[in-house]
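Input sequence (432 aa), recorded before submission:
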Amino acid sequence: FDDYAEIVLQMGLVSMFTLGLYLTPLLGAGEVLLQIRVDAYKLTALSQRPDPTPAESVGSWGVLMESMGLLAVYCNAGIIVATTKSFHAYSSLQRVIIFFVVEQCLLALKLAVHAYIDDEPTPLAELKKRNAHVVARHKNAVFDDDLDVGGDAIAVDADALSVAALRAKRVARPEAKRLEYLRRKLLGCDKDLRDLRQQYRDATAQEVYNETEGVSYSREHPDLALGMVSLQVQDVVGLGSAGDPVDAASTRLVIHVRGTEPGRAAGPAPQVSRPARQPRAEEGGADDLNVGARLVFDQHFSVAPVRTTRAELRIEVVDDAKKLRRGFAALPLPALGDQKQQALDLELARPGGQGGRPAFLRATAQFQYSKVVPIKAEITAKLEEQRRLHRDVTNLQIGRDVEYEDDWDFPDRQGTEDAKEADDDDGGGAGA
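Predicted structure, C-alpha cell format:
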C-alpha cells in the first residue's frame, strides 16, 4: 500500500502543479531514481524473500490514477486562466468562459492521445494470443475416435488404446530391430536439423533474402545485392563458314545481365572478353582453322552484383574488325535457380541477314543469389523426413505396419534383397 501511495501522490503533484513550478518534473525524476535504489536495498537486504501476492491488476489504484489525470486537466486549465497576465484584462465571467473552453480542449486532447496509444503493446498482445492458443490446444485435445481420418493423420481409437497393455506387449524381434533402426535414424535426423538451423542463423546474420527481388542483400549494407553469376565459356561452334569466314583475333564476347523490366539496371556494366583463338591441332577443328567454325575462348567471368532474378544472362558475339554482331544468346536467370553449376549448350540467334548453319556456345554457369534459400529447403526436407520417422516409430510402437517402408533401409530387408538378387543371378545364369 505504501509504495503505491507514494507513486500515486507523486504523479498527482507532478501532473497538477507543473505549471506552478517548472522544476517539478525534474524533482520528481530525481525522487523516482532515489526510490528505485531504496527499494532495491529493501528487497536485497531487509526483506529478501517477500511473500508474493497474486493480483490481476493494480485494482483501485488504476482508477485513482485515471482520476488524477482528469484533475490535472482542470487544475492546469485553472492555473493558465488565473495566472496568465494576458487574461487580466477580461472580466471574471469572461475568464470563467475561457476556463471551460481551455478545459474542454485539454480534455479532448487527452482523450485523443489515450485512444491513439494502445494500453497493451502489440508484441504483448501477440504473446497473449499465442499463449491462449497453446493452452486451448492442450486443454481441448482432439482424438480421432471411431472416425475414418483422411490425409496424413494417424487415426487412433482412444477407447481401445491402453497404455498399460502397450507397455506389457512384447514387440516381435524383426519389429524391434526396425524400431531401433528408426530411432537411430531419428537421432541422426535431429542432429542434422540442429546443424542446419545453426547454419541458417549464421547465414541470416550476414544477409537478408528479398522475396520480391529473389536475391539476398547484405545485412550490414542494405543496398548491396549479393547475387553473382559465374560463367566459364569454352568455345563457339558453327559461327564461321567458307562463305562467311570469321576472324578469331577480332571476335570477342560481351557478357552482361539485363533486366526484363525496362529502365532498371539488374546487374553491373557489361564485360568484354579477350579475343578468341583458333583451336590447336590436338583440340580438333584443324580443317576449319581459316573460317572460324570453332572459336576457343576458355575464359571465366564473374558478373556481380546481380540485383534481381527478373533478368537474363545475355552473351553477345561481336566482330571488332567489321563492327558487327555475329550472334547472341539469352538465358533467364531462373533457369539457374538451383544455384548449382550447369553445363550450357546455347544456340546463338543470328541478326537479320546472317544465315548459315546453327551456331552454339558451350559454357558452364552458376547463379548464386542466396545462402538462406538452400538451407531453408534442406531444413524443410529434413523436417519432412523427421515427420515420417516419427509416424513409423509410432506405428511400430502401437503394433501397426510402417507407412514409408520404401524410404528406409531396414536391416531385415537387406538380407531379403540380397537373396532376391542372388536368385535373379542364378536364374539369369541358368537361362544363359
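Checked by second reader. The CA atoms of residues 238 and 359 lie 4 Å apart.
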